[in-house]
What we know:
Blueprint: E1 2-6, H1 18-32, E2 36-42, E3 52-66, E4 69-80, E5 83-91, H2 108-125, E6 132-136, H3 142-149, E7 160-165, E8 173-174, H4 177-182, H5 187-190, E9 205-206, H6 207-214, E10 217-220, H7 223-231, H8 239-244, E11 249-251, H9 279-292, E12 301-305, H10 314-326, E13 330-335, H11 340-353, E14 359-363, H12 367-376, E15 379-382, H13 392-398, E16 402-406, H14 409-414, E17 432-434, H15 439-455, H16 457-468, H17 475-489
Amino acid sequence: MYIVQIASECAPVIKAGGLGDVVYGLSRELEVRGHAVEIVLPKYDCMRYDHIWGLHVAYENLMVPWYDGAVCCTVHCGWVHGRLCFFIEPHSEDNFFNRGCYYGALDDHLRFAFFSKAALEFLQQTNKRPDIIHCHDWQTGLVPVLLFEIYKYHGMEYQRVCYTIHNFKHQGIAGTNVLWATGLNNESYYFQYDRLQDNFNPFALNFMKGGIVYANFVTTVSPHHAWEAHYGEFGYGLGHTLDTHQGKFTGILNGIDYEVWNPEIDRYIPYNYTQDDLSEKLKNKKALRERLWLSHDDKPLICYIGRLDDQKGVHLVHHAIYYAMHRNAQFVLLGSATEPGINNWFWHEKGFLDQNPDVHLELGFNEELSHLIYAGADMIVVPSNYEPCGLTQVISLRYGTVPIVRGVGGLVNTVFDRDYDQLHQPEERNGYVFYQTDQQALESAMDRAIGLWQHYPEEFQQLAKQGMECDYSWNHPGTDYLQIYDFIRHR
């Protein structure tokens, strides 16, 4: 099959979150299986050009219709760690992608409406006719709309779209100017509840809703999150739309790249190890303590790696630090805050705890250090309020670091409670799960994990090994996506 991914991110050249990892990881898996994959991206001024090999101009003077005129674009081509990527650079006073950031501008809806239009115009003008166009999140929600309403009448009637939603919270809300800019024009037609009209604001258009309505198939990033979005609060108002289109909606768990996240070959850790011998993992724990100036005592080491914000259950992350100390454990945190209030809170805590030999707060992000923490920690806490898929718990399992997670989203699909899980055999269980958002629930799960480490070390080591046996590579999701591609291609 010939597959084109249209996305606003692709790791490591453009990465703001898990979306970039998925675009790269899935593309790589599909190529390994013999399929042709190309990725179409915006050419941001602030992307990591050092991760692109052989960047050159592939197509000049791509004229993209925009309002009553057209914007001239240059399309560049290069390889990102083996993946063939096309980068669209518009030459316009709007300066769409020269902002020093990927997201966060007041005109984001127009920036990515333009990108969606330009991506399809590029495919159409260059006679690229993929079997599948796979697009992602609200930024490309207009791709299936434009394909069905405009481009299928210009030689692209056979292309099929798979649309993946990574985060329902950000949906791409816009006004009528987007219709006139992209050539969709017909306000009364698109401001219909069964098309693009937002479910709660009759005067707004919703990019993500458009993607759901017009795509041939819609996925989100874990089976449990698909249920939460459809029936619970985490569809953020799109539950009824998902219900209407439930026949083409499912959840597929993201994978991780075991070429990158693998303690057997990880070049960022001083001691490589396998599940057969965890003594080398203990040496990484010693190395981590030396690097962060922690005391070398007979204590479990618990970590948190990730953003510090409300989605991640930041109030429980904070509580976990102090509860770990209360239970005679050490705690390491690596993460940056997304809001000034949370940032100030944790900098205050860092100042207060800086001299404590059992705690280290690293406020910021450091890729190399994250690998060492995964390899050196005994446990990781993931107390998210909501978590569409979650990568940290999957990575920690690979490194034999026992996850303590809240039972939401993809965390439910990947971590099975050692004591209480009824759906898996004891030898398949790999961590600890709690469900409420209060401190007592977190304490209960941490208590069980720390207690096992302290009193039954052999059983704790067995639990860690069972986690390392889990396969959360792109192998299974790659098969699932290919089945969806085949299904929509022959409809």
